[in-house]
Predict the structure.
Amino acid sequence: MIKIGILNKGPNFNWGKNFGYWFFVKFFQNELKDAGYDIKFYDSSTNQFYNSDAIIIDSRIFTDTIENKIRKKINLNVEHKHLESIIEISKKNQNIIWLDLTDSSGTTSFEVLPYVKNYVKKQFYMDKDLYKLNLFRGRYYADFYQKNFQLEENFNFKFCPLSDEYKDKLVLGWNIGVGNYFNIFKFNKLTKYQCILSSLYKKNYKELLEYTLGYYNDTNKSQNIFYRFNLRNNDKKKTIHFQRNKVNKILNDRFNLPSERLDHKSYLRQLRNSKISVGAFGWGEVCYREFEAIKMGAAVIFPNVNYLETWPNIYQDNVTYISYNLDFSDLHEKIDLLLNNDHLRKNIIENSQNICKKVYSSEGFNYLLNFFGKISR
């Protein structure tokens, strides 16, 4: 039996917490045990955690509001940075798997590579040589917008290039598409909290799957297009937010849809009632909005991300989504293509939904089994 210890926020279940990233593992926990992997979650570093054959460190424990609390629990000076923390942890167990859960494919913490066994990320650049380049704000798309639109003054971005020596340590994980979105159409908030309490005692995550957001494909849709973004017009990081702001302006000039903020149920209802959903990058490329759009039966139009590898991969151009260029030159053309082609739109929706549905099937389990095989060799 191979023991895997995961240091994150412990075993407690929360609906949609960090988009249910760990629900995927907890769902298959018994099957993984039958296959020889004993997976346990920890919210602090105990002797049992360090005695694991491999330990996975969730990067968010060093970046969120409980950072200092966690550092105290692992007996570190709270002024130390995460690299120093990793060095200290490596003295107790060298089989560290660093799980980088930052939003962007380009924002990395490769300075930990000499001290970890593997470096896991939700999505990587296909061309790993891009990690040798000091891209503006650490992002391929931000670098593109800075070079083409000169949006910001130059500044020093903390950057650690990828060394060829450590390329083999990189292992692809899974993205937020595995999330345990609660089905707010079918169940009320009381049921939501009952599920949380039930999971604390039964530890049966299989039962919770029936309460997750289903897949819809309504044939009669009254709205052609959906686009709603959290805009940051006054943020200094203009290259990061430029795409979202620009797409919003382009579409407002043509469609002029209401922009008031919606509660989550109304937001999903509008997605469900729309033929297409136009997306744009936020802090990173992979966003939960595209997965929500797929579940709601809206065909996705999204910036071209053919330079990324990720799983589940809903970014197969002309198969599971329609891409538009980073310079927006073909955005209207792609919108018209989908609005005027019912057959294409239907295929896009079906293909993307099928990929997402397979996450909690034998295909998803085999992906997870292969992942744990890689990091425990």
